Amino acid sequence: MKTPLFPFKAQIIDIKIETADTKTYTLLSKDAAYTAKPGQFNMVGYPGVGEAPISLSSSVTDGIFQHTIKGVGRVTKFLERFKIGDEIHFRGPYGTHWPLDMQSGNDVLIVAGGVGLAPLRPVIHEIVKMRNFFGKVTVIYGSRSPDNIIFMDEIETWRKDIEVFLTVDEIPLNMKWNYDVGMVTKFIDKSTVNPLNAYAFICGPEIMMLFVSKGLFFRGFLPSRVYVSLERRMKCGIAQCGHCQHGSKFVCKDGPVFAYKEITKLPDGLL
What's this model's pTM, rounded to 2 decimal places? Predict the structure, then answer.
């Protein structure tokens, strides 16, 4: 009998290098019934090494899905050595998702920082696929420098259907860069979305999400229409271990996607 902690295997069928420390793994689930929604996450790892919570960076089609993983800890560093044909273990999907079902007919503003674009990539894919169901759509994506940008080859194709602002904090000497420079907050006022008819999805470092949220409220967005994705240390994925508790909320179960109004008064972190 399947339990919420039961792990499955997935075979790596493709690996794409995004940056020096970030790769996108295309996986084929051995669980034929596996499916997930944009914004949800899996606990990904290997026996004897551990697990790490990783948001999906794609939709699930016929058991195929993607994780974009930055090698920053024991588990993710271990996964860096895996090759096409190898198998990983995963549990999930867990958590809440971006409320795309609420967006029909509305404008959408997507703001991402660094690898925070990964959990929002399936949202962008869904919007592009169903473009006529949405109003104006703007993506603002920023990173530290050009060599930290992920999905660079896709971003230009998004511009065919939606408004995109691409920016970096700084440009290293002798590096060519044809886009903008500055913090993502600089581009909030340049978006053509209507704050009175828009939802905002934000993912990235918490300090970035804080200032972006404040900037959106100043422009007229409602806290009930601004969504953020939080990261906390997760162990079980089902709100039993307490590792990801954020005030009265458990990020693994009540999140990771939250409406701003849900977490504005929590004592130990963002907002």
Answer: 0.94
